From TrEMBL:
Description of how the protein assembles with itself and partners: Part of the signal recognition particle protein translocation system, which is composed of SRP and FtsY. SRP is a ribonucleoprotein composed of Ffh and a 4.5S RNA molecule.
Reaction(s) catalysed by this chain's protein: GTP + H2O = GDP + phosphate + H(+)
Identification of the protein by name: Signal recognition particle protein
Domain annotation SRP54-type proteins GTP-binding: ranges: 270-283
Record membrane topology: Peripheral membrane protein
């Protein structure tokens, strides 16, 4: 188990306050604890460093040293700063789906939870916004993945584009567009092929699909437990495909959520949703406050 940052800081400040007024050095000691807590929460080193510098600037300005509860004051500054960095300027849950049929492109590595997330979002759009959604799997390399989407679709009552053998992903994307227009769908979701690693073919395929579909949203699905790897994947996908948001999956796991902070700080891309389990309802819009609390422990 992790020791929570609150406990850690209380410990540090308890010791310090017994010696009288706090000095700048005392605050520095506390900030070292903040840094360790961030690193333990899987925040990358440069992000943790910058973050602590920002907190230090604020702590100095806010006369933490004169406070009777300096530990609480530092925690509040850290919490507010975490929320500030994590909060984007768009409403994470508001997908751009006007002008039907609106294409949503789903990209990510194999095993990240892309197909599951596609179905979860389709269900959400259907139930919360009353949208008619069509889902299509473009994973021509893995027939099982195409089947998986069809099975999930049947389970949640969302249509999937019939599977036609021998088509290329671009052909499937075009067929999905036509079917969505003719069928009066509001949204069509394109679940692209994933691979274990980013390679030229994966990117070329996703880019070709993007070019024919002209998606309103391109959502990158990444495994929230993979920490810095998730951030690297996001940087590469964004540079090569361009993404409008990130979905962090497996946030129901043991991770402390630090990947969210690194993701936001390094890629600048908003986190839109978090996956919280295997079930079709296990998805929520990203809430900076909750993740901040989780990182702090
Ligand atoms: P894909 O290869 O990226 O399409 O990944 P899948 O959608 O097939 O998901 C791979 C596995 O991860 C499946 O067993 C999913 O049920 C599971 N999974 C997906 N999202 C989550 C999540 O948020 N939490 C947990 N615990 N499991 C998830």
């Amino acid at each position: 188990m992790f020791e929570s940052l609150s406990d850690r800081l209380s410990g540090v400040f308890d010791k310090l306050t017994k010696q009288g007024a706090l000095s700048d050095d005392d605050v520095k000691t506390a900030l070292r604890e903040v840094r360790v807590a961030l690193l333990e929460a899987d925040v990358s080193l440069p992000v943790a460093r910058d973050f602590v510098a920002a907190v230090q600037a604020k702590a100095t300005g806010q006369a933490v040293t004169k406070s009777i509860t300096p530990g609480q004051q530092v925690i509040k500054i850290v919490h507010d700063e975490l929320e500030r960095v994590l909060t984007g300027d768009t409403d994470p849950g508001a997908l751009k789906i006007d002008n039907p049929p609106a294409p949503i492109l789903m990209v990510g590595l194999q095993g990240s939870g892309k197909t599951t997330t596609t179905a979860k979002l389709a269900k959400r759009l259907k139930e919360r916004e009353g949208k008619r959604v069509l889902m299509a799997s473009l994973d021509t390399n893995r027939p099982a993945a195409m089947e998986q989407l069809a099975i999930l679709g049947a389970q949640i009552g969302v249509d999937t584009l019939p599977i036609v053998k021998g088509e290329t992903p671009v052909q499937i994307a075009k067929r999905a567009k036509t079917a969505a227009s003719l069928g009066g769908y509001d949204v069509y979701m394109l679940d692209t092929a994933g691979r274990l690693h980013i390679d030229a073919e994966l990117i070329a395929q996703a880019a070709a699909v993007r070019d024919v579909a002209n998606p309103r949203e391109t959502l990158l699905v990444v495994d929230g437990l993979t920490g810095q790897d998730a951030v690297n994947v996001a940087q590469e996908f964004d540079a090569k495909i361009g993404v409008t948001g990130v979905v962090l999956t497996r946030m129901d796991g043991d991770g402390r959520g630090g990947a969210a902070l690194s993701m936001r700080a390094i890629t600048g891309k908003p986190i839109r949703f978090v996956g919280l389990g295997e079930k079709m309802d296990a998805i929520e819009t990203f809430e900076p406050q909750r993740i901040a609390g989780r990182i702090l422990g």
